[in-house]
């Protein structure tokens, strides 16, 4: 068993030696290419902030609707249908729940979905254009000082 492990290890080492050293990734020196990636990264970061804000809004809308629906369930079991005040209060709560459902469906959900789509698109573009690349650190640092990114 030990001999087999040594044999496998030597075959693996021979294979690695045969492949030779991995080619080093080229370092990008072009200021415009680096600027494009810095700007793309800043755009993705800004969109992530928008995405987080809309996700919070979406989750808050869901919570509000769930709380109103819980209140409706509780009141439904306690309502005195012969008491006009109880019936009116229940109707008001029902209307509030309906408004919350419409707000979730017509505002919060589409807004969140739109933010997800924009973020995903920007991230895919950034990854395709800049993902895994290495930059000349001096040029990169000088671009960071004032990238002069176009307005998105």
What features would you describe in this structure?
With 152 residues, the protein is mainly α. It has one domain (2-145). Helices cover 80% and strands 3% of the residues. It has four helices and two strands, in the order αβααβα. It has helices at residues 2-19, 31-78, 84-130, 137-145; strands spanning 27-28, 134-135. Helix 2 (31-78) runs antiparallel to helix 3 (84-130) and helix 2 packs across helix 4. It is rod-shaped. The N and C termini lie far apart (63 Å). Residues 1-23 have low confidence and may be disordered.
Tags for this model:
single chain, 152 residues, mainly alpha, two-stranded parallel sheet, 4 helices, 2 strands, 80% helix, 3% strand, rod-shaped
SSE order in H/E notation? HEHHEH
Strand order of the largest sheet: 1-2
Oligomer: single chain
Radius of gyration: 29 Å
Determine the fraction of residues in helical runs and give it as a percent range: over 70%
Integer tally of domains: 1
Shape: rod-shaped
Overall pLDDT metric:
86
- The class by helix and strand makeup works out as mainly alpha
**What portion of the residues fall into strands of 2 or more residues?**
under 5%
**Major sheet details:** 2 strands, parallel
Write the layout of secondary structure elements.
Blueprint (H helix, E strand, L loop, with lengths): L1 H18 L7 E2 L2 H48 L5 H47 L3 E2 L1 H9 L7
Parallel strand pairs: 1-2
Helix pairs in contact: 2-3, 2-4
Compact summary:
The protein is mostly helical and 152 residues long. It contains four helices and two strands; from the N terminus they run αβααβα. The protein has helices at 2-19, 31-78, 84-130, 137-145, and strands spanning 27-28, 134-135.
């Amino acid at each position: 068993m030990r001999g087999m492990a040594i044999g496998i290890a030597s075959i693996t080492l021979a294979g690695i030696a045969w492949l030779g050293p991995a080619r080093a990734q080229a370092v990008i020196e072009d200021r415009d290419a680096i600027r494009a990636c810095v700007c793309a990264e800043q755009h993705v970061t800004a969109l992530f902030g928008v995405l987080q804000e809309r996700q919070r809004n979406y989750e808050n809308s869901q919570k509000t609707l769930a709380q109103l629906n819980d209140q409706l369930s509780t009141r439904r079991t306690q309502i005195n249908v012969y008491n006009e005040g109880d019936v009116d209060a229940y109707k008001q709560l029902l209307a509030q729940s309906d408004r919350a459902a419409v707000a979730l469906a017509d505002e919060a959900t589409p807004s969140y979905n739109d933010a997800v789509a924009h973020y995903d698109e920007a991230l895919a573009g950034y990854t395709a254009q800049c993902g895994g690349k290495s930059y000349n650190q001096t040029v990169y640092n000088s671009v960071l000082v004032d990238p002069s990114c176009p307005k998105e």
